[in-house]
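Appendix C reproduces, verbatim, an entry submitted by the partner laboratory led by Prof. M.T., so that reviewers can inspect both the input and the predicted structure.
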Amino acid sequence: MDIEKLTVEQLNDLSAKSGLENLNKLRSEGHDSMEKNRNLLMTILKDNKDTEIGKKYDFASIDSIEEYQRRLPITTYDDYADYVQRIIYNDEENLMTAYDFRLFCETNGTLGVPKIIPMSEKAIQAQMDYNANVLNGILEESMDDSWKKGRSLYIMECSFTEMRKGKEYGLLSAIMLQNMLPFVKKTNAIPPEVIFPEDSAGTNIRYLQARFGIMAKDITNIRGTYLSFITEVIRYVENNWELLVRDIEQGTIDASIEMPEKTRELMMKIIEPMPERAAELRAIFEQGFDTPYCQKVWPDLKYISGIGTGAFEIYEEKLKERYVDDRVQFYFPGISATEGLFSVPLEMNSKDSVLVPSVTFYEFLPVEAKGDFSQIVTMDQLETGKDYELIITNLSGLYRYRMYDCVRVMGRYHDLPMVRFVYRVMKTLDLLDDHTTEQAFTQTALQTAEELHYDMVDFSIFVDRDAERPHYVYLMEIAKHPESLTKEQIRQCLNDKLCQMSRHLAKTIERGMCGPVDLFIVQDETYLLYNDLMIMRGRGAAQLKPVRFILNEYQRKFFFKMIETEWEKA
């Protein structure tokens, strides 16, 4: 197929039809799903019986789920680190998996050294079939054809590092976009030179994403890994529109924009003056930002796609509150990670997604079991309304691997469980055995901002154990707010709502065993600055996760130095 000869609409139509096939295939797996999941496990064991791990546990003699569970222990990344090092540095093969692979994927946590996990070709194809293509099938079913006529805005930044024997190292999102590169070049408004930069160090990626984004008028959808970076770029437009519009008008890049000279020269080769578009944009932005601006800039915008559950809920709320109206739909990708694809939604605007039984073998540890692995169940034994920790066996050599993700069972599609990501099991905090979850802190922050009518940009939580009475501390960046609003009003509301979320915490505060919630307001653009610092340290801008919990000294020093003294005086 010669993609260059096809129009954007024709390419989107082909994607929609292919996606519909994948969507219908997934729906068909809703019947006898446990049998399909069992068959997948047996196939994985058979195919990998001669690997080093397969011989260690004698995969060849395992003929049931029960025997597999008896034979193999629950594992974590530390159980595979040595295998990964041998694969990378000794060029050894057939250790974890017999499946072909050429890629090492980086997990995208923002703390510590990222984990490196081999990703097989089978696993990549599963991500392409279900993570990428199912969305197109849902669009084909639920929207009219007008979404096919415009281009996409991929708010992403991807990079690869060459490893030994031609193997590459990078992020999952980069791998998927690379596989679709000819299609992306034609259907995406942001050029490949921005998405796949030769030198991202020292480059203001937000500027480039925002600038190329608003240059295009025919955008029908915005896609990103996380809603956080999409929100960040959209907010950047609001705060820097005059500079952006001037550069678009003149075909220049302002001298204040940071980027290596080589990158600047490359960008200048692919931009040109657009005075007419600049005039349109200036007229829009001069009206102010009291009403959503995105559909004024992109009149045909239909949907936004990005992770919006767990720690990312506040960004969905921000987009809906300030930047788009209810004509724009949302697609929330299911539960997916470098370690594998787990679940996929079946419709737009849904945060519930169905497990995919043909690509990952699932086990579940009830959260109430408190680490008692004898209580692990398979997906046919899941109970609606209960929370479980996810344990997976994948197509890349991870066996009974503990994900530390908590999911809640929301119901069933035929006999496929429908789940929703709730929180990271390791993302809970304790003052005195209260086990307060990330979700509780997030909902408290969202509800407080809504009740007191202020614009919350972002927040983090610190546990002050050195105080006379240990307590939780919110550090919060606030934009617009009522003039009469005080820090104490916000603090009291946060404390009341968090106590409603956690009765155990409320009781310990009532008894004087710990102190009430404290609050510090940080300066404007604190979180942008922190992200910039992380980018300077080598992290991809579009892959940064929110700093919900302040867990190390670097973060503590940074955020507490950014406290806004004017709020403290009020």
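The first strand starts at residue 101 and ends at 106. Additional entries are available on request from the coordinating office.
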